[in-house]
């Protein structure tokens, strides 16, 4: 990492300019200088092959009778473009989940429970568990797609064992 120092000269503000013109002493050169250090730190590179901010191993309740995907605070990303004020009040918020393998979009609801868990529900079983044949032990991944304002979803790893087709 290298550091360099740069001096920036500032031109007068509109108010300062008008005051200088009125007094006949308008400066033709910048009136202030500021020293700024610039650090040449390389940006954190986005891994385009593994962008999954949220990884979760499916539990029995995720693929069973509950009818919802249970997410902990460690799974939810605060920079996801959702209405966090409404979610924190307990309001259900509509989210689009984009399945990247099948290229399909699904409308689900996200809500926060009284014990600070988050539930993705409203057709979770039909649209993901049954359609994608999710089982306990499968690993899924999700990330926020800023372009489409949706959560992208993928099955990252299948559990070992018998699968029904």
From TrEMBL:
Main location: nucleus
SUPFAM superfamilies listed in its UniProt record: DNA-binding pseudobarrel domain
Cross-referenced CDD domains: B3_DNA
Record has Nucleus as a keyword: yes
Keyword terms of this UniProt record: DNA-binding, Nucleus, Transcription, Transcription regulation
GO MF terms held by the record: DNA binding
Location within or outside the cell: Nucleus
Cellular component per GO, a single term: nucleus
UniProt cross-references to InterPro entries, sorted A to Z: B3_DNA-bd, B3_domain, DNA-bd_pseudobarrel_sf
Record-given protein name: TF-B3 domain-containing protein
Gene source species: Aquilegia coerulea (Rocky mountain columbine)
């Amino acid at each position: 990492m290298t550091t360099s120092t740069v001096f920036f000269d500032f031109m007068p503000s509109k108010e300062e300019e008008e005051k200088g013109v009125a007094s006949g002493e308008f400066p033709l050169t910048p009136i202030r200088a500021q020293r700024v250090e610039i650090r040449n730190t390389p940006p954190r590179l986005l891994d385009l092959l593994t962008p999954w901010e949220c990884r979760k191993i499916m539990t029995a309740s995720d693929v069973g009778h509950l009818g919802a995907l249970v997410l902990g605070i460690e799974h939810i990303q605060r920079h996801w473009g959702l209405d966090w004020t409404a979610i924190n009040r307990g309001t259900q918020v509509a989210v689009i989940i984009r399945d990247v393998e099948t290229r399909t979009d699904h409308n689900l609801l996200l809500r926060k429970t009284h014990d600070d868990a988050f539930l993705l529900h409203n057709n979770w079983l039909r649209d993901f568990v049954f359609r994608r044949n999710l089982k306990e032990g499968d690993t899924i991944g999700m990330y926020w797609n800023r372009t489409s304002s949706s959560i992208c979803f993928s099955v990252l790893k299948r559990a070992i064992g018998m699968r029904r087709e």
